[in-house]
Amino acid sequence: MNDSSLIDRVAELAAQLTPVSDIAAILDIDEDDLRMALADKGSDIRKAYMKARAETALMLRNQEIQLAKLGSPLAVQMTGSYLRQMDNDIDY
Question: CA-to-CA distance for 75 and 88, rounded, in angstroms?
Fold first, then answer.
């Protein structure tokens, strides 16, 4: 699971918010092996997966913020939930 081309492909699919089971199917790799690699906080594949996923989430949050600034009630509600998630993610 440390093949750089495999890691790049997993990251690409994660950036497209592809579920882990679908990533395994698309790449023809064992789903349990992929899940184990993603559970290992030190693995390169997990780092690439998490970074790609976080970058896409950031892009989507930015779009929601822009819509909230334009007055979208749903976007305002969503950005409020993002703020609560941030608060819950902080270790005080």
Answer: 20
What is the residue type of 34?
L
Question: What CA–CA distance (Å, rounded) separates 84 from 72?
Answer: 19
Average pLDDT on 17-33 reads 97
What is the per-residue DSSP string for the chain? Answer: ---HHHHHHHHHHHHTT--HHHHHHHHT--HHHHHHHHH-TT-HHHHHHHHHHHHHHHHHHHHHHHHHHTT-HHHHHHHHHHHHHHHHH---
CA–CA separation, 53 and 75 (whole Å): 20
Coil, strand or helix at 72:
coil
Q: What is the pTM of this model?
A: 0.85
